[in-house]
Amino acid sequence: MAKGYWVSVYPAISDPETLIAYNKLARPAVQAGGGRVLARDGRVVAHEAGITQRVVLIEFDSFEQAVAAYESEAYQDALVALPDGFQRDFRIIEGID
Q1: Strands 55-60, 89-94: parallel, antiparallel or unpaired by DSSP?
Q2: Which helix H or strand E contains 7, and what residues bound it?
Q3: Taking the CB of residue 90, how many other CB atoms lie within 10 A of it?
Q4: Residue 35 CA, distance from chain mean position
Q5: What is this structure's pTM?
Q6: Beta bridge partners of 5
Q7: Which residue positions in the chain have pLDDT lower than 50?
Q8: CA–CA separation, 2 vs 39, rounded Å?
Q9: Where are the alpha helices (DSSP H) in the chain?
Q10: Pairing outcome for strands 36-40 and 89-94
Q11: With b meaning 16 or more CB within 10 Å and e meaning fewer, what string describes 41-80?
């Protein structure tokens, strides 16, 4: 079965402190959904229209599990905690078997 991944790219973060409430809720929601953080805030080399700001990669055992974790009540509560006007490019993708 192909794994599932959350890929989040944050185009700009003017005040990282505004993410504290989201992070406090998101971390346990992701773990409860079976997610494992593979990369977060590490070094980035961007090409073409790439963005070097915060990039987060989370792995799940399946694509379905990744979608279910996003749709979970716990993660939806975390999303409410994102600051107003906050932008990110978030995708759920299926890995290659």
Answers
A1: unpaired
A2: strand 4-9
A3: 13
A4: 10
A5: 0.89
A6: 59, 93
A7: none
A8: 19
A9: 20-32, 63-71, 73-80
A10: unpaired
A11: eeeeeeeeeeeeebbbebbbeebebbbebbeeeebeebee
For the stretch 48-58, pLDDT in tens is: 887 778 889 99
Q: Which amino acid is at 26?
A: A
pLDDT at 70: 98
What would the two tokens of residue 35 be?
């997610």
**Which residue reads 């990110």 in tokens?**
88
End-to-end CA distance of the chain: 6
CA distance 7 to 4: 10
Q: Which two tokens stand for residue 34?
A: 């079976």
Sheet holding 4-9, edge to edge: 36-40, 55-60, 4-9, 89-94
Distance between CA atoms of 95 and 74, rounded to whole angstroms?
24
pLDDT > 90: what percent of the chain?
58
